[in-house]
Amino acid sequence: MIPSIAVLRVENTRWRSPQLWIPLFLLWIPVLLISPLIFLVLLGLSLANGISPWRVFRIFWDIVSGLPGTHVHVRADGNTVQVRVL
Amino acid sequence: MNENRRQILEMLAAGKITTDEAERLLAAIEPGTVTVSELKGSVGGGDAKATTVKTCCKYLRVLVEADESMTGMKGPTTVNVRVPMQLLRAGVRLASLIPQQAHGHLDEALNRHGVPLTLSQIKPENLEELIDHLEDLTVDVNGKEGNAATKVRVFCE
What we know:
The complex is a heterodimer. Chain A is an alpha+beta fold. Chain A has three helices and four strands. Chain A has one domain. Chain A is 40% helix and 28% strand. In chain A, strands 2-1-4-3 form a four-stranded antiparallel sheet, with no helix packed on it. Chain B has a four-stranded antiparallel sheet. In chain B, strand 3 and strand 4 (151-156) form a beta hairpin. The relative contact order of chain B is 0.14. Chain A binds chain B through residues 49-51, 55-56, 59, 62-63, 65-78, and chain B through 58-59, 71, 73-84, 86-91, 93-94, 96-97, 99.
C-alpha cells in the first residue's frame, strides 16, 4: 500500500500549527513524470556497484509501501512534532 | 469457554488432531494470537507437526518518557514512535545494497563511534531472523527511585 496522506502538526510554546493534511498521492504525478530519469540513475548506480537493479527497485518500493502506519510523536523542550503517514 | 479452545477440543474429539497437537494448540491459543482456522492448516493430518504459533506483529513501538531532571530541558520529554515491521524489514534489506568497497570505511566509522560491527559479516537472512525475533522483544525500563518519571518501553504490537 503506497502512502497517500501525511498528517503533520508542529507546536511550540508560542504557537501551534493546525493539523496539515499533505496529499502524498499527488506527489506520484511528478514522480511518474521523472521516473525515466530516476530509473536510469538507479540503473547506472546499481550496475556500477555490481548490484542487481531489480533488487534496488524492489527494496525502494518496499520502503515506500511500508511507510503507511508510521507514527512519530516527539515532545521536548516545550516543542512538539507529530507526523503520521496514512 | 473460549471459542478457539472449543474448536480445538472439537477437533480432538473428532480425531482430526492428536492429543499432543491439541496440547500445543491450546498452549498457543492466548489473547492476540492467530485464530484456530489459521492454525488448522499448520496441523493437518496425523503426521503433521504442530508448529509454534506466533502473533504476526505489525508495528514496532518505542515509548520514552523522561522528566526535566533527566533531560535538562524544559518540560517533560516524550517520544512515541510506531514503525511498521514491513518498513523495518525493507530498511534492513537496504543495508545489503551497500557496496563491498564501502564496508571497510563504514566498519571503521562505526568502530570509532563505539559500535563494534562488521558489516561484511552480516547476512540478509540473519537480519530477517533478527526482525522476526523482534516480535518477542519487550524492553521495559523504569527510572530509579529518584527518576520515577523516566520510562522506556520497546515492544511489538
